[in-house]
Amino acid sequence: MQTETLSMPATTDISNRAPVYSTPVAFERIGVVEKPLSVAERLYEQAWLRKLVILVVLALVWEGGARWLDNPLLLPTFSDTVQALWAGLASGTLFARIGTSMQTLLAGYALGLALSCALVVLGISNRLGQDFLETLTAMFNPLPAIALLPIALVWFGLGNGSLIFVIVHSVVWAVSLNTHAGFLSVSNTLRMVGRNYGLSGMGYLTKILIPAAFPSILTGLKIGWAFAWRTLIASELVFGVSSGQGGLGWYIYENKNQLQIPEVFAGLLTVIIIGLLVENLVFRTLEARTVKRWGMQN
């Protein structure tokens, strides 16, 4: 029986292959690597300008809808509302109402933050404290602050004490819930890094836990501020009528009773303007100098 064997060449002859040459390309022929943005694209990149356009569009829709409805008692025009707002500011009435509301709001907000800090420290200290905080949050967070108005009247009577009480209730649970959730979400890797550097106590809290949980803390501060505003205006509608004094809520209610609807909308517009100013001047600045600077948010 004959067997056939196949022999493979030990080496491959590449002498007959065509040479490969690389022709250099002039830099000018590559083209534009970085294309400059057009004027429209540069304007679109400005966040403040985009928001301004949105506000202008909303104002135009308001103006057009009010003129089409043609019923100032239901919906005054945007121009009439701005005139009423300017008149209230020029007379000093709105400034006085704003000062009264802000004084009460800041007091309640500060007390709510202080109480939230105490509850969160208790919640992250041990398992019993965590159970205590979670139980209180589950009980009282769904409870509307307006529902506590009768109790506030009985306990504190008419005046700022009752207002501050309901504001504290609206702030403390939202801030505590978000802050505690932020601390729980800190990764074990960051915790071990802090331990490896020998951090403990306040150093561990301020250099590891708080920076890592700060996005959730900031969210809680925003939500607490919004809840405080809503609670304040709603409460002043009641306490202002009862005590004959008040801030923006009483200003709105008083003008409603007199059928001065542009002034009512001027009061509402004042609340909106203050909210926009606080959001963009306070919280946006704080956000830019913390979580965005640390690379935790785009």
UniProtKB/TrEMBL annotation:
Domain ABC transmembrane type-1: 90-282
Record PROSITE patterns: ABC_TM1
Location relative to the cell: Cell membrane
One BP term from GO: transmembrane transport
Keywords noted in UniProt: Cell membrane, Membrane, Transmembrane, Transmembrane helix, Transport
Keyword Metal-binding attached: no
InterPro entries: MetI-like, MetI-like_sf
GO cellular component, one term: plasma membrane
Topology of this chain in the membrane: Multi-pass membrane protein
Transmembrane segments: 52-69, 105-124, 136-156, 163-184, 204-225, 264-283
Chief location: membrane
Xref: CDD domains: TM_PBP2
PANTHER family, A to Z: ABC TRANSPORTER PERMEASE PROTEIN (PTHR30151:SF16), ALKANE SULFONATE ABC TRANSPORTER-RELATED, MEMBRANE SUBUNIT (PTHR30151)
Family according to the record: Belongs to the binding-protein-dependent transport system permease family.
Protein name: ABC transporter permease subunit
Natural source organism: Ralstonia pickettii
